[in-house]
């Protein structure tokens, strides 16, 4: 696991406390390594982080089809039977992921995620691995 530059546990807990129906909050690197978590077991967080890496890669591939954009994924929302999944870009090569139950307020969730990213985005950045291109 990549060690974050600062302890983000309380910030992730704050997001979960401010938005009713949040189940899990995870911060991950672009290559799918868990950096921080709240509300979930380590094994679950690791599986979600790995899945998020694939999802953000897929979203970036779709993004390249927009000729006037930069092709970077900013936010992915998936509605699943039982709840919602949110994945947001959060600093260079880092992402914020949230699992929430069906009753979540989508507008509040998006706002609180953006607020969190704005507050600590620079602390969420991960350096590229050796030999990996810088995005």
Q: How many E-type strands?
A: 5
In which range does the helix fraction lie? 25-40%
**How far apart are the termini?**
21 Å
Write the element-wise H/E pattern from the N-terminal end onward: HEEHEEEH
Largest sheet: 5 strands, antiparallel
Low-confidence runs: 1-5
Mean pLDDT across residues: 85
Can you walk me through this structure?
This protein is of the alpha+beta class. The protein has a single domain, classed as 2-Layer Sandwich (Beta-Lactamase), CATH 3.30.450. The protein has three helices and five strands, in the order H-E-E-H-E-E-E-H. The protein has helices at 9-18, 42-63, 106-120, and strands at residues 22-29, 34-38, 75-80, 83-89, 94-101. It has a five-stranded antiparallel β-sheet with strand order 2-1-5-4-3, sandwiched between helices. The radius of gyration is 14 Å and the shape is globular.
TL;DR?
Helix content is 35%, strand content 25%.
Topology, element by element:
Blueprint: H1 9-18, E1 22-29, E2 34-38, H2 42-63, E3 75-80, E4 83-89, E5 94-101, H3 106-120
Antiparallel strand pairs: 1-2, 1-5, 3-4, 4-5
Features:
135 residues; five-stranded antiparallel beta sheet; disordered N terminus; Roadblock/LC7 domain-containing protein; Roadblock/LAMTOR2_dom; Mycobact_SerProt_Inhib_Rv3364c
């Amino acid at each position: 696991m990549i060690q974050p530059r600062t302890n983000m546990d309380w910030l992730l807990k704050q997001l979960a406390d401010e938005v009713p129906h949040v189940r899990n909050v995870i911060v991950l690197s672009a290559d799918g390594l868990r950096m921080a978590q709240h509300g979930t077991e380590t094994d679950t967080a690791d599986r979600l982080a790995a899945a998020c890496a694939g999802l953000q890669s897929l979203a970036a591939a779709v993004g390249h089809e927009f000729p006037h954009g930069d092709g970077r994924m900013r936010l992915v929302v998936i509605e699943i039977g039982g709840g919602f999944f949110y994945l947001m870009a959060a600093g260079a090569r880092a992402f914020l992921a949230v699992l929430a139950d069906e009753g979540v307020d989508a507008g509040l969730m998006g706002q609180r995620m953006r607020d969190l990213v704005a507050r600590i985005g620079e602390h969420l950045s991960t350096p590229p691995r050796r030999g990996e291109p810088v995005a």
